[in-house]
Please model this.
Amino acid sequence: MKIKVLYLASLREQLGRPGEDLEISPAGSTVAGLRALLMARGGAWQTVLAQGKALRVAVNQEMAQPTTPVKPGDEIAFFPPVTGG
Amino acid sequence: MPVRIQTKDFDAGAEVAALRRDNPKVGAVASFIGVCRDANDGGAVTKMTLEHYPGMTEKALDKIVSEAKSRWEVMDVLVVHRVGELKPTDQIVLVVVTGAHRGEAFAACEFIMDYLKTRAPLWKKEETPLGARWVEARSSDDEAAQRWEPPKSSAA
Model:
């Protein structure tokens, strides 16, 4: 299925891109599954998205959990804990 | 629109005047302005860049404002948050809450800031003499937000 992935703030710099359109296997049909697929790219992907890293994920601009489903056409954003105000 | 994300500066006086204009029921206006400091974590800050997630940031702030309005007896709320490049002494964020009485307006204003700092997708990158660095989230901000959580139900 096709999805859109965004990497924001420090993650964009560490991963070297602002986002990408992806065609993913059913293994990526949850937030945790997608994260694992991206980590499997190795290198910076593996370290930046590693479990235990303070990381937030939004699906269609709503905060998500590891179990949140990822469906065709969804926009999934990975970003660090927020620091506005 | 109770929520605005913008690069340009804001005039707090004009925003307050506009928010309470022609409303004789307003007896209290509580406001907060966040300002860019010249130091953070013991180091000098020469400049900062604020980034947001267009679309989600506005939605998240709208949700925080709605929750404040449901929890306290307040009338109108305005949140203005700047993004882009800012330098020390620049204004960053404005929250204004109007209501009949000060207690509710103060509480709602503080709640909105605490939730904004922990739930609205905004990130600061600081320029320092040693180079640029992304600001780390603070646990004290999480603690500030947690005090507004409703008590957990004791029902099993």
Summary: Chain A has one domain: 2-64.
